[in-house]
Amino acid sequence: MSIQQLLEQLQGMGLSGFGAQSEDIASQLTSQYGLGATPLTGEMFQTISPGLVKGASMSAYSPLFQQKQGAMMTDLMTTLGGGETKKAYGGFAGSGGAQLAQQKARDVYGRGMQDVLTQATGAKSHSLATIQNIIDQWRSTAQSFVGPGMG
Fold this sequence. Notes:
Elements: H1 3-12, H2 22-32, H3 50-55, H4 62-81, H5 83-89, H6 94-143
Helix pairs in contact: 1-6, 4-6, 5-6
């Protein structure tokens, strides 16, 4: 599921986007489900918060990536400039040790950044699912007012 797919669902409901107010939601669903005799009210509908929409975008997690990358770069430089690495570069046997030290540092850096990516992806997925649940609740509320054989 993507932000675009959620927007398409909202547009299919006659709403222009995530910023729809509860009264607009009630009005559009009243019309869409033919509930003129029993109109829905805004109090029945939770709106989608801007923070939730922001959380559904990977760009929201950029500061997290930058923070982790900064910390990891410091550790990487310390590791590559540390005593063990300096020893690995010395002497005839050093070239193999140097490659091993570099590989170890890259592995640690890669695992650290992978953890951040996993965390950000999980948070993004949670936000998307929450928005989908809100939209599903809107539909369910409206459908609960539709009489038998209608809608």
